[in-house]
Design brief:
This protein is of the alpha/beta class and about 270 residues long. The chain is about 45% helix and about 10% strand. It has 2 domains: about 35 residues, no CATH class; about 200 residues, Rossmann fold (3-Layer(aba) Sandwich). The chain starts with a helix and ends with a helix.
Length: about 270
């Protein structure tokens, strides 16, 4: 009896050479598979495969998120110059956890001028939050972040009214209500050019913005809103119910971006 037990101890393995580091290791005779790597290299290989799968999944999230390709490389590190807005938005994004998004504060990012870097900061947040995502890579996953522009959302809702529409309006809200972070850029861009006084929005526009904000409010999930319009002006254009919900969702997380239009910087340099 004792003899039989002893015959299946590890000593029944064979000496082998690791296909990676060349070290010699004891290959145990387990089943039919023949290990090619030593314990250290096997662990390293598994870690590398896991990391590569994580990188691929994050790239897939970026594609799924709706973030336009030119914003994929916008990061807090590629922001030039110091600004309070940078520090505040960065701290907000660093604190965001995809697995604990409920009740996380929404962020309202605004600045009157065009080309101040508002979209840059919003994209940097999306990219950081996707890069911070830590989950089970083995599971098929939906992106934890969605990015869309308000004019595109309004057009999408309008398209849902057509008889041959690909989706109903309810499906649009269902699609946008549950994602951990929803980023809506260019809020109120459609109603007036920046720098001008904005008239009250059409009742359709008011209704769409209300549904957008209320669907996230109801789920207790955050929004990152980006606009040329400050919140008090938004209240006048969109109505109190929408502004009041945004105010509760953001609390003190209202960030103003200052500065000139950087899109013109090369042109300015010529003069
Ligand atoms: N501080 C900055 N550092 C580096 N690049 C910047 C900075 N601010 C703006 N940019 C760049 O300038 C361009 C315009 O910025 P962005 O699109 O973010 O402006 P915006 O404030 O969203 O403008 P708009 O109100 O017209 O939407 C982008 O290419 C952006 O990356
Ligand atoms: Mg922008
Ligand atoms: Zn090895």
């Amino acid at each position: 009896m004792l003899r039989n037990e002893l015959s299946v101890t590890p000593s029944s393995g064979e000496q082998a050479t690791c296909g990676r580091c060349g070290a010699s290791f004891l290959r145990l005779a387990i089943g039919l598979s023949r290990r090619r790597f030593c314990d250290v290299c096997l662990a390293l290989k598994e870690r590398e495969e896991h990391d590569a799968a994580l990188v691929a999944l994050r790239e897939d999230f970026r594609r799924q998120s709706g973030l336009p390709f030119r914003l994929w490389k916008k990061t807090f590190a590629s922001w030039e110059g110091e600004s309070q807005a940078l520090n505040l938005v960065k701290a907000w994004a660093e604190g965001f956890r995809c697995s604990a998004a409920r009740s996380y504060k929404s962020l309202y990012l605004y600045g009157r001028e065009n080309g101040q870097g508002k979209t840059h900061l919003a994209a940097a947040s999306c990219n950081l939050i996707i890069d911070q995502w830590e989950g089970d890579v083995g599971q098929r996953r939906l992106s934890p972040v969605r990015y869309l522009s308000a004019p595109a959302l309004l057009a999408r809702v309008r398209a849902s009214y057509r008889a041959d529409a690909a989706e109903t309006e309810e499906q649009v809200w269902d699609d946008l209500s549950h994602v951990p972070l929803l980023v809506v850029d260019d809020v109120l861009k459609e109603t007036a050019a920046a720098g001008q006084d904005q008239a009250e929005a059409s009742s359709h526009t008011q209704r769409v913005y209300f549904r957008l904000v209320d669907s996230r409010y109801g789920e207790d999930l955050p929004l990152l809103l980006v606009s040329n319009t400050k919140l008090s002006e938004l209240e006048r254009v969109l109505g109190r119910a929408t502004a009041s919900r945004i105010a509760e969702m953001t609390g003190t997380s209202i960030v103003q971006v200052l500065g000139k239009d950087r899109r013109w910087k090369e042109k300015d340099a010529e003069h």
